[in-house]
Amino acid sequence: MSFLAPIALAGLAFLPVVVAMYLLKLRRDEAVVPSTMLWQKLVSDVEANAPWQKLRRSLLLLLQLLLVLILAFLAARPFVERPAGLAGDIVLVIDTSASMQATDVAPTRLDAAKAAAIDALRDLPGGGRVSVIAAGRTARVVANGTDDIGNVKAAFNAIPPSTDIGDLGDALRLASALAARSGDAEILVATDAALATPPAGTLEAPVRVLQVGRDAKNEAIVALAVRTSPSGLSHSAFISIANLGLEMAERRIQLYADGVLRDSRVLVLDPQRKTDISIDDIDDPQTPASVIEVRLVAKDETTTAAPDPLGVDDRAWAIVPPAQPRQILHVGEREPYLETALTYLPDTELYYRSGEEYSTLTGLDEFEVIIFNRFLPDELPAKPILAIAPPESSPLGTVTGTLVNPGIGSLDASDPMLRYVDLTTVHIGEAIRMELPAWARPVIPGPGTAPLLYSGTLAGRPAAVIAFEPRRSDLPLQVAFPVLLANLAGELLGGSETPLDGIAPGAPVTLSIPPGAIGVRVERPDGSADELVATTAGAPVVTFARTDLLGVYTVTPIADPKSTASPTTGAPTAGASSSPSAAPSAAPASPGASPTFRPADPGAPVRFAVGLLDLDESRIAPGDIARLTALGQPAASPVTGAGAGATDPRPNARDEIWIPIVLLALLVLTIEWLVYERDTLARLRRSIATRFRGARPAGRDA
Amino acid sequence: MALSPNPQDPGSDRVPDAALASADAPARPIGIRAFLPNDLDPTVFDEGFLRQLERLGVLMKQPVRGGLKGGRRSTKRGQSVEFADYRDYSLGDDLRQLDWNVYARLEKLFVKLFVEEEDVTITFLLDASPSMAYGKPQKLLFAKRAAAALGYIALAGEDRVVTTALSGRSARRHSGLRGSGRIFRLLGNLSGIHPGEGVTDLLLSARHAAAMLSGRGVVVLISDLLDPAADRVIRELAATGSELIVLHTLSPDELDPQLEGDLKLVDSESGEAIDVTVDLAALDDYRARLAAWQESLEDLARKRRASYVPISTDTPLADLVFAELRRRRVVG
Questions:
Q1: Quick check: B314 contacting A, CB < 8 Å?
Q2: Do A374 and A333 touch, CB atoms closer than 8 A?
Q3: Most buried residue, A263, A498, A584, B287, by CB count within 10 Å?
Q4: A240: helix, coil or strand?
Q5: CB contact under 8 A, A30 and B262
Q6: Looking at the partner chain, which of B139, B275, B291 has a beta carbon nearest the beta carbon of A46?
């Protein structure tokens, strides 16, 4: 056994000091008593002739000497040596991805990984260095080449649980770079190895994996989308739930709209399968919701225990797309029935231009749908198009003739465009005979192969063609007409597309700075807020990266105190009548791939949601560590280490034996205290005994 | 007997100025205050208390020959109304003492003998050593009060009362008092007893007091007995032929010391000091030794046909007289 700090043994010099304290004459308080007769032969420490007699049977002295001895021994940091099991330079990679929050290993896999790492570092040779890398969405060095295990533990404390999505690739490459600087290095990876795609490449040092995790059972919300129903009147939620375990599971799913429970249902989830459900009418048309939250809870709502080990994937949020006015341009012959029906659509602004005026029209980009009625331009705009009785062939379809009193063919009731549309009593007087193009599907089939209404995606944009003028039929007189138009508009306006994608945890978000603002204030789900101010005046966007918390973030502009102009609301620049005078200034796209959010009202708050929604990260079954180990070099010799030039024998590992010494010191200290306070304790014991027995105190019996 | 100011008493002109000037002087009967020791509480001896004392008497285990005519049975035959015995008539006897009823039945002359009633001298030996000046309340003060109460009982019982202070190596004896009217003198004598200075040899002073005893009577020793020769004191006083009553007076601080820590204990008489670490074990040893000491003194007293009464100075005087002393057959 050796000592790390032998100089501390100088503390043994306190031993004679303690003895000297006992040898020194006590300074006693003087008390006059009637007679010392009864005291004469009682006391054991009557002033003695020889001072050494004071030391006899002084248990306190012995205990205090023993305590000084133990403390000096402890301060010298004794240790024992044994062969080191690790290299001299350790790069420790701690997986901090979301799956490490699983609680199948108490308290969490992350904490278990830290504990396993600390335990493994006991094999570190004397003078060994440790670097620590936190592997989340990105790799982060939290400790670099320290030889103090205390620093390593402090670095561990600086690694909080995260919801990041990561694959260890960056971290292992960084670890390899750090390991390459030493001749005797080793990479320790503390992870659950639940990786969908293991990192590729070769690392410059041997890799040892400290695997944590046990269970595979987990149910997760892996997708959530809120869509505007084709009518545009309400919203529907589309949820995908995966059972990643090996057994069938029953879970309850709850849907909250702005914090109000709107739906709750029990799902039976097949193992290793995804279950998709849709929930319609999740809010009222009059009071549309802004935030949708979906929770995957236990089947029995009263159960307090966690239904699965990983809780971060049991909640998801989605932002309901804000109601923005949809601008529709009507070109060609005026159609009163059509215009009347379109103006009844909610959030719809209808503009009209004749065919001649269309050729000189600018600002087409501001319109979301263009309806050509008995008119087609020479070149179709790159916009969603609804063509009504096109006069000539075009990419929208080939006109082959005219149909008189065409009958309506067999309808597909499941077609979303025919939802709530009853065409059984509709009569069409005249229609254009067209051929169904390849890009379209028939919605209202006509006689033979000639469709009366078809829809599809043309050149990447939705398009639909009605082969008859409404006024040439009795359709406008029936309820089915506005419903059909609403479904058509919803299809063409992209109501089935996800309006706002969720953000992955930790992913940066580019936020637009509205005109008249100098920055934005982002309130995180935990209530904390960050203020982001553009570093350069007039910068249109800022980037927000603290998206590590799951939930809804709210962005509000920070007004420029120097600016007095109020933000202006954007509008199309079309020179048409009734059109707004100015076009909205679309925010330029950011260079990166991150989404950009731009409020419709510059002063209104913008929300975005951060959710895990990652099937791979929810797959918590511990993976095969061999795939990680195989990335590294062959294992080093336990004696000499590995690496070029590593000829020096590897130092032994040192185990400090402070714990038993501290326990011994505490024991001695406790005994010393008990001996010192034995009178007080005896009085307390007698007092309690007297109280229970109700006897008179001793000493007054005489 | 009621204690009231007596303008005819020559002691009335000895009222101390301090007593008159005291704040509570108006509430005290000035005449009594004049005869009381300064440190005696006059309210203790109120009329009700004295009435109760008058009903008591100092008990003796056996009659003894006294001096003057008194109220206590004597070993002599005398003139009391209590019949004692008969004896044959002899020439010269008082014919009034013949029992004519017996003569009528037996035709023989017998003379009736009656019990003689004489007084007994009750001697109070008050330890006035410096150690008696300690305690709360002070042991000597308690001793004076006890002596005053017992003395009044004796005076009311037509006994002779003598007070003697034991101090130094000698005893200071006051003249004997007789009759309840002498209570004020008794109180005055007691008030004149103060703690002595220097070491008191209790044995020598007790011997001195024993030498001054006249005849057999009752000796009441009131002392803390904190003297190595305390047992010899009891032994020698019991050997005088008088009935010995020992009131072993200790203060609560001596019975249950409230000391703790490393102390230098200084003897109040000798000034000698000893270093003591007073812990719980030492206190337990002290109490055990004290109990053993008291037990040994009680055994000794029992063997010498003496009465031993251990008493704490915080005992109320009424409890001492009407409870403790009656229980131990000292008074009755």
A1: no
A2: yes
A3: B287
A4: strand
A5: no
A6: B275
* Strand-pair partners of A374: none
> How large is the average pLDDT for residues B295-324?
90
Confidence at B10, pLDDT banded by 50, 70, 90: very low
Give the whole-angstrom CA distance, residue B212 versus residue B204: 13
pLDDT band for position A232 (cuts 50, 70, 90): low
Q: Check A702 against B255: CB less than 8 A apart.
A: yes
- Distance CA(A41)–CA(A370), nearest Å, equals 119
Q: How many residues does chain B have?
A: 332
Cross-chain residue pair A39–B276, CB shorter than 8 Å: yes
Work out the pLDDT band at A76, boundaries 50, 70, 90. very high
Query: Which value does ipTM take for this structure?
Result: 0.73
Indicate the average pLDDT of chain B.
79
> CB–CB of B39/B190 below 8 Å?
no
B153 closest CA partner among B175, B173, B124? B124
Are the CB atoms for A458 and A429 separated by under 8 Å? no
Q: Smallest CA–CA separation between B167 and chain A, in Å? A: 15
**Where is A30: in which H helix or E strand?**
strand A29-33
Tell me how far apart the alpha carbons of residues B329 and B332 are, in angstroms, rounded to a whole number. Answer: 6
The percent of chain A in helix, strand and coil, each rounded to the nearest 5, is 25, 30, 45
Question: What is the four-CA torsion angle of A568, A572, A575, A579, rounded to 10 degrees?
Answer: -80
Query: Going by C-beta distance under 8 Å and a sequence separation of 6 or more, which residues neighbour residue A360?
Result: none
Strand-pairing partners, residue A138, are: none
Q: Does A537 touch chain B (CB under 8 A)?
A: no
User: Looking at this protein, which amino acid is placed at residue A625?
Assistant: I
Q: How far apart are CA B111 and CA B109, in angstroms?
A: 7
| Confidence label for B1 from pLDDT (cuts 50, 70 and 90) | very low
Q: What is the model's pTM?
A: 0.49
Res B72: pLDDT: 60
Smallest Cβ–Cβ distance between A29 and the set B263, B269, B294 belongs to B263
Token pair recorded at residue A602:
């510059």
pLDDT in tens, A475-512: 999 888 988 988 888 788 754 333 356 788 888 888 87
pLDDT > 70 in chain B, percent: 78
Interface of B with A in 251-270 (CB under 8 A): 251-252, 254-256, 259-269
Put simply, the answer to whether A31 touches B275 (Cβ < 8 Å) is no
Name which of B267, B273, B277 is nearest A35 (Cβ-Cβ).
Answer: B267
- DSSP label at B320? I
Instruction: Tell which wins on pLDDT, B197 or A330.
Output: A330
How does pLDDT run across A362-386, given as a tens digit for each residue?
888 788 889 999 999 988 888 889 9
Please check the confidence at residue A524 and state whether its pLDDT lies above 90. yes
SS3 A383: coil
Write out the H or E segment, with its range, that includes residue A489. helix A480-492
Shortest CA gap B241–chain A (Å): 29
Name the token pair of B58.
């100092």
CA A445 – CA A417 distance, rounded (Å): 13
What is the Cα–Cα distance from A574 to A582, expressed in whole angstroms?
A: 8
Within 10 A of A151 (CB to CB), how many other CB atoms are there?
Answer: 16
- Asked which of A521-535, B74-88, B168-182, B206-220 is least confident by mean pLDDT, the reply is B74-88
- The Cα–Cα gap between B95 and B99 comes to 9
User: Residue A449 corresponds to which tokens in the numbers above?
Assistant: 């192969």
| pLDDT above 70 for A270 | yes
Place of tokens 């002393």: B325
Does A683 contact chain B (CB < 8 Å)? yes
The whole-number pLDDT of residue B94 equals 83
Which secondary-structure segment (H or E) carries A680? helix A678-693
Distance from the Cα of A68 to chain B's closest Cα (Å) equals 25
Question: Is B247 a residue whose pLDDT tops 60?
Answer: yes
